Amino acid sequence: MSMLTTENLHLYYGQKEALKGIDLAFEAQTMTALVGPSGCGKSTLLRCFNRMNDQVSNAKITGSIWFDRENVNGPAISLVTLRQKIGMVFQQPNPFPFSVYDNVAYGLRLAHSLPKAVIDERVETALKQAAVWDEVKDHLTENAMGFSGGQQQRICIARLLAVLPKVILLDEPTSALDPISSAKIEATLMQLKRDYTIIIVTHNLQQAARISDRTVFMLDGNVIESGPTQTLFMTPENQQTSDYLNGKFG
Amino acid sequence: MTPTRLDKVATKVIEVFVACVVLILLFLLSTILIQGVPHLSWHFLTSPSQSFAAGGGIVDQLFNSLYLLVLTLLISLPLAIGSAVYLNEYASDNWLTGLLRTAIEVLSSLPSVVVGLFGYLLFVIHFHFGFSILSGAIALTFFNLPLLTRSIEGALAAISDTQREAGLALGLSAWRTIRGVILPAALPGIVTGVILSAGRVFGEAAALIYTAGQSAPVVNYTNWNPLSSDSFLNPMRPAETLAVHIWKVNTEGVTPDAVSISAGASAVLIIVILLFNFLARLIGRHLYRKMTGNSNK
């Protein structure tokens, strides 16, 4: 079953066309990697799903994105609900300048009025899901900014898991981290893809090959090829895909 | 001249300039403190001023300065936070925000005596506020608002956009993100800006001569009803501040000890402003540490 589908999605920054008609379907409980050279539009595409491109004043979007039988680009959509269901993790870990506990509980408290015991439980569950519980459980009242980059990134993952999303978008989540922290994030994502639909933008082809089930190769605002990661890496159909994977450009 | 030699000469010249600035400051501070501190005493700080006899103190003026400062901040802080949030978080770069910024710059460069006379004509005369703490506080707001707005805007601009993205991506509205994340994160910078502007307000005289007045009527420090005419909290009473007192004692003072009163009052003024500055750094640093928590790892 497709969790997220795009139909003839175009995005323009002023005169420049950054996405040139994207038709893709993202399967539930699957991790899809978006790869391609810098400027190919993969991050722009990712930011379409939770409407983060709204912040860019000259961006104009046409086409549809279907999620839960609703058009994400439609006028009736509630951005608050949408962004709770489709969470995002950024390149730079960006915990709020609060305690670990408050970071994870913040979105939760605003979304629903829940008794303290339920919030406590959800915070714990989210931190466990993000595989950072053991490291922070004795430091829940300490400021999240004081932890290492990898821990901060996993706290950010816990923060979005706490509001019970269906889709997790990750925009190069490990490119600002050291290899050990990156490996921990990857292990966390491998666990999470059993329950969530994950879309990850990455520059790191080995990472895409290691952890994703499906891969989408983009070039210059177009999807060149998409399919199961194994197939795409081993037997790419398109010459450009093959050239990129073999390091001939990008 | 060889490049290395030129570099040495340039460095020396710059060092001389810096030394000039520091020396001027040290000279001013030490003169004021050396001349003023010997006149300070508990009696001086706690007794009312005298018009003709010697031995007057500055208790009313000191209180008036502080009270005026509090009222000014009460009026100007919400306005400044509001405009700074608008300028930094909501406004896009267009002619309107350009106009706003220009207005703020012009307002900040208005001579304070002009602000004072304007306040005199509008509030004291036209609105019948009279010479009062309220008139003074509004005039000082005019004077304080641009600087405060700019410093708060600076504090907000220093917060990384990744924080705003984090809030939005979590489904928070723009306002929730600002109130819950950006403002708390900017708090150390905001507090520093407020305290520094408080120092300027505390030392202001020209804008107050025509608005808060030059007389310090006897007030009752035990009357807590702000509506009562002799209450120390009554905002409609005239109130000579410390800075205005220094000016008045020097221009028309007839007490035999006018010189020592002026010197002592100046020392108190400088000491309080220095305290504000140190406090600003201390609190700012403390809050910054608390907000960014470098407590472990």
From TrEMBL, chain B:
Topological category with respect to the lipid bilayer: Multi-pass membrane protein
Keywords from the UniProt entry: Cell membrane, Membrane, Transmembrane, Transmembrane helix, Transport
Location of the protein in the cell: Cell membrane
Cellular-component GO terms for this entry: plasma membrane
Protein name according to UniProt: Phosphate transport system permease protein PstA
Any Pfam family matching the protein: BPD_transp_1
Residues of the ABC transmembrane type-1 domain: 62-280
Main location: membrane
PANTHER family reported in the protein's UniProt record: ABC TRANSPORTER PERMEASE PROTEIN YQGI-RELATED, PHOSPHATE TRANSPORT SYSTEM PERMEASE PROTEIN PSTA-RELATED
Gene Ontology molecular function: phosphate transmembrane transporter activity
Keyword Transport carried by entry: yes
Protein family: Belongs to the binding-protein-dependent transport system permease family. CysTW subfamily.
Biological processes, Gene Ontology terms: phosphate ion transmembrane transport
InterPro entries (alphabetical): MetI-like, MetI-like_sf, Phosphate_PstA
Positions of transmembrane segments: 12-34, 66-87, 99-123, 129-148, 181-202, 258-280
